[in-house]
Amino acid sequence: MVPLSLIKTGDRVQVQHICGSGYLANTLGQLGVCVGAEIEVMQKASESVIIKIKDSRYALGAGAASMVLVHPVVGK
Description:
Elements: E1 2-3, E2 12-18, H1 23-31, E3 38-44, E4 48-53, E5 56-61, H2 62-66, E6 68-72
Antiparallel strand pairs: 1-6, 2-3, 2-6, 3-4, 4-5
């Protein structure tokens, strides 16, 4: 597992774990970032990661992206 913040643009990953709890975990869950969700990294900037979940796009700050642990999706 690696943090979402280290994934390259264009890669598809599956969420394995979200570090921490409370407000951040709740907010990510409301966006659809939960264990088992498939995410595509659309763009990376110095301080944020733009992700795509289903038909929606969201920008996560570097801190939030580093708390989402993912595993590459193979074969898609």
